[in-house]
Amino acid sequence: MLKLHTAATPNGRKISIALEEIDAPYEAIRVDLEAGEQRSEAFLARNPNHKIPVLEDGDRVIWESGAILLYLGEKWDPEHRILSADEDRRWEAIQYAFFQTGGVGPNLGRLAEQLRRPEAERNQEMVAIFSAEIDRLLGVLDRILADGREYMAIDYSIADIMHYPWLQPVLALGAPQMTSRPRVVEWMERIAQRPAVQRGFAVGG
Ligand SMILES: N[C@@H](CCC(=O)N[C@@H](CS)C(=O)NCC(=O)O)C(=O)O
Known about the structure:
Layout: E1 2-6, H1 10-21, E2 26-30, H2 41-46, E3 54-57, E4 60-63, H3 65-75, H4 87-102, H5 104-115, H6 124-145, H7 158-172, H8 176-179, H9 182-192, H10 195-201
Parallel strand pairs: 1-2
Antiparallel strand pairs: 1-3, 3-4
Helix pairs in contact: 1-3, 1-7, 1-10, 4-5, 4-7, 5-6, 7-9
The structure holds glutathione.
Glutathione (GSH) binds near residues 10, 52, 64 and 65.
């Protein structure tokens, strides 16, 4: 039985969605981030970076959502549901997964951090910088999807799973950067309809 230390946040949801997609047996252990449980000695012994998600597979402990998804794709996905058996598609999926950790993740994370503050306490310059970058990144996604592919790396994969939980709130808010790009919206809706995504999204709350 795998153990997933998680919370109802975008990075936590990536992993519960993947685990649901591959039907892996797992126990979700909720980490109360508000209470600071991620800074407890027990948690730091598993992840010195004090962040969820953390996956335990027996004695093996893995942190960083991208690394965990690659691990699940390599070790727990014999039917290639999240990482293609086709080498080109597999590398394309890995490429877009890394693109998320350096793009949508940090920029949307910092933007959300500003927007959670009362308006008077926001740094408007930072809001403008991160908003512009998110707009640019959504333009990149739009360009990737322009050839009519259903999923980022053609087959449904860790690339879609890395992006979806981050972009879902943007879609839910009806942000114009998203709604002005129907291809991106359709891709998001396609992912949202997957039962495993719905189950995985609900974990950690
Ligand atoms: N790069 C990390 C980011 C993980 C992350 O930022 N986790 C957040 C929740 S989404 C967290 O645990 N924050 C608690 C803290 O920073 O103390 C990953 O992809 O796993």
